[in-house]
Amino acid sequence: MIGAGIFALTGQIAQLAGPLFPLSFVVGAIVTALAAYSYIKMSNAWPSSGGIAMILQKAYGPGVVAASASLLMALSMVINESLVARTFAAYALRPFGQEENALFLSILALALIVFAYFVNASGNRSVSGFSLIMSVIKVGGIVVFAVAAIWASGFFSGAFSEDISQTGGGAFLASVAFSILAFKGFTTITNSGGDIVDPHRNVGRTIVISIVICVVTYLLVALAVGASLTIGEIAQARDYSLAAAARPALGQLGFWFTIIIALSATTSGVIASVFAVSRMLAMLTDMKMIPHSHFGMKGGIRSHMLVYTVVVAGSLAVLFDLSRIASLGAFFYLVMDMLVHWGVYRHLRKEIAAKSSVLLAAIAADGVVLAAFTATKLDTDPLIVGIAAALIAAVFALEALFLRRIGRKDEKPGSKLR
């Protein structure tokens, strides 16, 4: 969770929220904490490797809603891969002054996604070992950068010396949609129920701990960037804002240090995401929730899903810029998240002893953020709203056709599914 999102999204959030952008991460953490309640309750009751797909099937039965929402989650993860890959390219090109070169950005982003495919294809042990090394580098590096930048710049310079009255409430709430994306990795922890010790207790604890660590780290980074740069400077360098903040605060050495940390974080982020989403798509295929074709390829379903994942992520990285990729991810994730909470509230809250007030608060929080984000994007980029709406509708329509073709009959929500 830590690292890739903060490099990709800090500039986007600051551009919307203005000098208050560190608070966007705090509000995002609060919305995420409300959202985590459903996932923790479900994982404590029925820990499994099914994760979100298990939750949705328990809530809705194995029909169109469960299949479509699960696929939206998988697609939001693929979108995240392309988002982080583009961020990798922006930071890699920054030292050469080519961070605005669309061709170079696309080539480097695609190259990283292909590299992630080969690491994943080499086996789970390679993914685990590489991710562990990169995690130590990126987490330690991010904290060092943040503390050093705050120490050098203080709390009352840069963006924090600007007038906060110019920030609109709607734009601030819209920025929270991007903040939530930086936390959404917690949902993949629900897939670990079949693998860890005492899952009825430890899945929930892990989710809580991860969110707490993330909000502290993200807040430190936001304060460091805001102390070093004005909002105009952050907006201008939104795709590589941490590198831009490092130079005035820490000099040339700090700039190169941040570049290295960013490349490490984004590389490990893409590798981990490709691993998670290919595993999830393979599971959805085994559960007959999505169609599958070998297209003449050899190997098992997991190897095929690796190929499909990198093809889709690579295409998005080439076709869209960072802002539009992040926007697509926000739309997909918020819709899926609301469906999870509604399903738990409507069908399972008594069975898992969940509080209605918390579930409804999570739905309301997601709804407010989604409405504000949609309104802001309709004003600034209506095309991406249309693309997101069309893709979400297409997912539901195609899932309905597929499930009808295979003769899938809905079971009663809350049925005993493992």
TrEMBL record:
Transmembrane segments: 20-40, 60-79, 102-120, 132-152, 164-186, 207-235, 255-278, 299-319, 325-345, 357-376, 382-403
Example of a GO MF term: transmembrane transporter activity
Alphabetized Pfam families for the sequence: AA_permease_2
Record localization: Cell membrane
Major site of localization recorded for this protein: membrane
Keywords: Cell membrane, Membrane, Transmembrane, Transmembrane helix
Alphabetized InterPro entries for the sequence: AA/rel_permease1, APC_superfamily
Stored Gene3D superfamilies: Amino acid/polyamine transporter I (1.20.1740.10)
Keyword hit for Nucleotide-binding: no
GO cellular component labels: plasma membrane
Highest taxon above the source species: Bacteria
Membrane topology: Multi-pass membrane protein
UniProt protein name: Amino acid transporter
Organism: Novosphingobium marinum
